[in-house]
UniProtKB/TrEMBL annotation:
Keyword Ribosomal protein in annotation: no
Membrane topology: Multi-pass membrane protein
InterPro entries to which the protein is assigned, alphabetical: CcO_II (IPR045187), CcO_II-like_C (IPR002429), CcO_II_C (IPR034210), Copper_CuA (IPR001505), Cupredoxin (IPR008972), Cyt_c-like_dom (IPR009056), Cyt_c-like_dom_sf (IPR036909), Cyt_c_oxidase_su2 (IPR014222)
Protein encoded by which gene: coxB
Protein's recorded name: Cytochrome c oxidase subunit 2
Enzyme Commission number: 7.1.1.9
Amino acid sequence: MKQLLYCVLALIISPALFASDMPLNMTEGVTEISGQVYNLHMIILYICCAIGIVVFGVMIYAMINHRKSKGAIAANFHESTKVEILWTVVPFIILIIMAIPATKTLIAMEDPSDADLTIKITGSQWKWHYSYFDKDIEFYSLMSTPREQIEGTEAKGEHYLLEVDKHLVLPINRKIRFLMTSEDVIHSWWVPAFAVKKDANPGFINEAWTRIDEPGIYRGQCAELCGKDHGFMPIVVEAVSEADFEQWLLDQKQLAANAKAAAEAALTQTLSLDELMAQGEQIYMAQCAACHQPNGAGLPGVFPSLIGSPLIKGPVAAHIDIVANGKPGTAMQAFAKQLTAQQIAAVVTYERNAWGNNSGDTVQAADVSNGNSDATSVLPTEIDLTPAAVQPEAEQIQAVVTEAVVEAAETVETAEAANTESLDDLAMDELMALGKQVYLRSCASCHQASGTGIPGAFPSLVGSPIITGPVSEHLDIVINGKAGTAMLSFNAQLTRQQLAAVVTYERNAWGNSSGDAVQASDVVGLAK
């Protein structure tokens, strides 16, 4: 019996004694914080093992020495005040012992102040966008694992699904602050070696920080279920010496200058259909195939097919526009900042001629540059953060406030001027065209492009009471919003002409067909 007891105790104690050598245990990482997290983990493990030794030791002792075959007679008592106090006080003391180091570690993890470098990390389906504050450097990082390995036609590499085309390069021995957000759904930036795991939420900013002690390459991935290609969103961080980092910054600026010069030179080039198709296929497979599939068939009900679609058969300019500027209210991203004009031209050419589309269209970089002149009018798809907007210093905050006040005053003056100049009546066709543009930009994200809304969250506008009711009530809710709901007031965001046009569009689109034509003059005096 004693030998059995020793074996059981050995099984309980040995995991704690040899945990640091076990491949399944938490790793220590390469930062001071990751070391603190590891030590906290081991402290909790030791406490759990100690509790296990005591509890199972008492159980085994009782089973051996108080068994029926030994003549033991069970005690007959209902309750014990001493026992009640004991099993309340002892767990309380244990929790206090565990809470002290845990609190210290959490406080250290949440202190991004006095950072030497700030980087904005923006997640999107399914890539990471990195922006170095004050360095004028930004780039997208995409998974580079070949499709052949993913589809099983080639042997998987050493870092399967954990390799990217561009590493996030960071200096060692510097405090680095991360600002994390998202432009579509919730992602999570996780690098175990740094003990950094923070959600990237659309419309919000989360903070984290690290100070890397050892040069090397460290890998992580998105740790939040963010869609069908969630598993294809890796993170690769390359930690280098401070001197190498400064040289990398210079190299990146030179590469950016060379890329800009090459993009400008491409505007005068004319590529053949074969050259455009070859380049376009590479870009499509890297950027578009995740949603629209390598064969262009899309995912029914989620991502549209590109085989013989109205977009492919329609005007080239509309095709270029949706690739460059995206489509508000949908998962279609804007690629104007991700691809050059030449690359956009190539991928549009490929989509219009692949999978049997055979349009014969050859799009050149000059076509993209000319057709994308209004790209700045598209609403930004990610939060605009500037160094001044995130630094806590009083002088910088004052500068931001002053700049915002000036911009707001200019915006008000512009809006007032627009409202003064936009009281002329428009024809129904003009109202519908303008209203559709305004709706897709400002309303479709909630009520959907088809007007069907999201049941339980945003009401449908197809045959709804607000649409079939008085025009004045419809105008009131668009202009002044609705208290207690997510319906915003658009009086300060849209001109009178735009307000009239979007109400006209909603009352006549999707089969509503009210025939109402609302004019800018109808909007005057309705703002509260």
